Amino acid sequence: MTDVTTARPAAARTTALPEVWSLRALDGPVPAGIAGQTVPAAVPGLVHVALLDAGLILDPYLDRNETTVTWIGQSAWEYATRFDYAPDGHDRHDLVFDGLDTFAEVVLNGRSLGRTRNQHRTYRFSVDDALRDGENELVVTFASPVAEADRASLEIGYRPHTYFHPFNAIRKAACNFGWDWGLDAASSGIWKPARLEAWSGARLAATRPVVSVDGSDGVVAVHVDIERADDADYSVSISLADGSEARIELAAGASTGVAELRVADVALWWPRGFGEQPLYDLAVSLERDGDVLAERTHRIGFRTIDVQLDRDEEGTSFRFVVNGEPVWIRGANWIPDDAFVTRVTRERLSHRLDQAEFANMNLLRIWGGGYYESDDFYDLCDERGILVWQDFLFACASYAEEEPLWSEVEAEARDNITRIMPHPSLALWNGNNENVWGYEEWGWAKRLQGRTWGLGYYLDLLPRLVAELDPSRSYTPASPWSGDADIFANDPEHGSVHLWEHWNRVDYPTYRDVHARFVAEFGWQGPATWSTITRAISDSPLTPESPGMFHHQKAMDGNDKLTDGLVAHLPLPDDTEDWHWAMSLNQALAVTVGIEHMRSESPRCMGSVVWQLNDCWPVTSWAAVDGYGHAKPLLYALKHVYADRLLTIQPRGGGLAAIAVNDAPAGWTGPLLARRLSFDGTVLAEALLATDIDARGARTFALPEAVATPADAASELIVVESEGVRGFWFFAEHRDSALARAELTTSARRVATGYEVTVEAGNLVRDLALLVDKVDPDAVVDDMLVTLLPGESVTFRVRSEEDADPERFCAPDVLRTSNQLVADWN
């Protein structure tokens, strides 16, 4: 070995391992046609993806093929590769795996480097005693995750959990074992990058920029940890692109240090809708005697974010405050975007965030049953001003606090807090999803019989780690969370709540009976888009209950709940395409009712995080974007109800009121016209109300009795409008109304970007939509769910590269209205 205390060390060097390895099954219920075969496997990658690419398994997204691949998770697997190495002058060499899923043993040239048991950690193995000049053989074997979860559950003792497998006994993404929207496809694999790192003397182990704002100055305290191989003196140089610089001197034996930089008149980072998202490049370099040994960069943003849970006369608030400005959260929950997460690219994430922005969202909550997201995800949110609520990965189960889980959780949390904390979009760390609520209300205490269930993580370990590693961030122990362990976790008057009784057992108009401070989960199911269903399911005939359709409905009694939630509002069609449209529309109507109510109670209520933005495979679910990335009508409903300016009519004080919600940066001063109309457009009563609403404000206008009281509830509505913003109130449900067959005059033409479709209404037309995926699965329309009064028209713009007959967009199976569902039934 070189005497690194006297020689000048060279800069660290990173060598990527081969991108394609060989994969074979070691044991388990492996089909005869696959046993003994070796196939190429991309790294990063997963076993399922490699077998699918090799043509050895059926696509589990199609029909009921999921049932044909469950053996994969019950089997053990081997990844193997060879790589060349020549002595490079460095005295330390580490194999680094950013992610191994999950129970792995790493063997280099026949020497075991170690075993892993946590998907969510980075692993670093010293290989100096195993690495050899020339060709090296690297083998990573994976035990069956299904068997290991069962074994761990026996070892640590039963803990209550949802669904079929004891996912809570191990540190692997819970939804990989199946969920009420996800397939059971427990996989294995080298799911993140792997590399060989060579270094001498010392290396940068961690850099953590803790950002704050002091008056008009931006302040960043950069915490640096190094790993040493000697006792030499080192220095760390830190700089921002604006020219600010600082140094940390690490004398012999010292391995940590902090330096502070200040930026005068700093440009603040804001969430979208509140300002710009300036990002500053922060460079950190490790040096010795003027030589740079290692470098690391971060993009940081200067802002303050507090999540405030304060007791007041109405209970406990739950509000996000950015740079001193309260932000009404218009958000959605985020689940893994593919059941096989290694297939999610930066381009795909960018498209999904395009859809979130299209729907006027300003926050995504990364749900605790999936993964800590990729660096690409957080980078894109930084650039776009989308706030991120990050759950720690505990969901819908009780978790043992004994070893080996406690140490695994601590190591996992340290890795991911350190990795994610530089991102300005990160707004909140949250301890778990529904576990405190579950303990309180789902009967866990009786089944646990005094065993630990995770509270020590949520109230002790995780907040301590956040305070140590990311002290400028807010932390909540759970979602839902009341703000106090002595108050029921899901109390609407306190903190955040999850509202699921409405979907599960009641109905969506009852959202208006809940006066929450912040709604972190609620939602309504709807089918995937028609093109996705017909691509994924080959049933003939295709019905809501045909085998493939039923298999792609994972919620308990899901189809019954869809029907129960529909029939009070819309007729239940027998035709499958009509059924599909009715259920898609009802999903959009339900969520609209909920969010309009929540926004109408601003600032008492300060947020809505709908379940959910995306799907991980083609399935009937609560998502606004289906598993093939196509927008459902719900996404357009969210675009409308999450718009900066909203007019809504709500019951108030025994009558009706118009509520104007202005979440725009400028005041709203135009007059508000309220009219009661008959369905034929006749004005029956009207009132002109003066509006003067501050930026980020709201105002309630009691409607005069003449406007608010119908003579014939079945054939009348209220319209309120101001400065191009409209709100509607129908006195009767769709099915009980006098809605007639739509009288439409249509025209369509080809344009440079696709098509333009103009629709003029001869009578009242409700919920006008273009289901453009029926013409071109990749087509996107700019709006949907438009209600037209008699004589009004709208032009839809369709982006498409398909060479189609423009009139196809005007066909009755594509150009949809709720009139179609109601008129024929009446």
Q: Care to describe what's here?
A:
There is one protein chain. The protein has 826 residues and is of the alpha+beta class. The chain folds into five domains: 13-197, Galactose-binding domain-like (Jelly Rolls); 201-300, Immunoglobulin-like (Sandwich); 317-336 and 362-369 and 492-643, Glycosidases (TIM Barrel, Alpha-Beta Barrel); 645-732, Sandwich (Immunoglobulin-like); 744-823, Immunoglobulin-like (Sandwich), CATH 2.60.40. It is built from 16 helices and 46 strands. The strands form 13 sheets. The chain has a six-stranded antiparallel sheet, covered by helices on one side. A six-stranded parallel sheet has the order 29-28-27-26-25-32. Strands 1-12-5-9 form a four-stranded antiparallel sheet, with no helix packed on it. The longest helix has 25 residues, at 576-600. It starts with 12 loop residues before the first strand and ends with a helix.
